[in-house]
Amino acid sequence: MRDRNDGSRQIDRATSTSICKAIGERLQQNLGPEAPLPSSLQRLIDEMHRQETLSKNYK
Questions:
Q1: Nearest-angstrom CA–CA distance, 59 and 48
Q2: Which of 3, 15, 20, 45 could cross-link to 11 by cystine, CB 3.0-4.6 Å?
């Protein structure tokens, strides 16, 4: 059985952004606006926002 995550396929930036937004929306729905995020998850979200901002500035 082949490993599905063998690195042979990559997704484009638009697809990656769409996936990230969808994950964020689902997290907001499931956690609600008042639930605090675990610090490790908050750091990842902050980094994602930082990278998104940087990529928008280079366009």
A1: 17
A2: 15
Q: 48, 20 in Cβ contact below 8 A?
A: yes
- CA distances, 32 to each of 43, 53, 57, 58 (Å): 18, 25, 31, 33
**Which residues, 6+ apart, have CB-to-CB distance to 55 below 8 Å?**
13
pLDDT (0 to 100) of residue 29: 86
Domain layout of the chain by residue ranges: 13-57
Q: How confident is the model at residue 18 (pLDDT cuts 50, 70, 90)?
A: very high
Spell out the long-range contacts of 12-20 with Cβ–Cβ below 8 A and sequence spacing 24 or more: 13/55, 17/52, 20/48, 20/52
Secondary structure letter of residue 35 according to DSSP: S
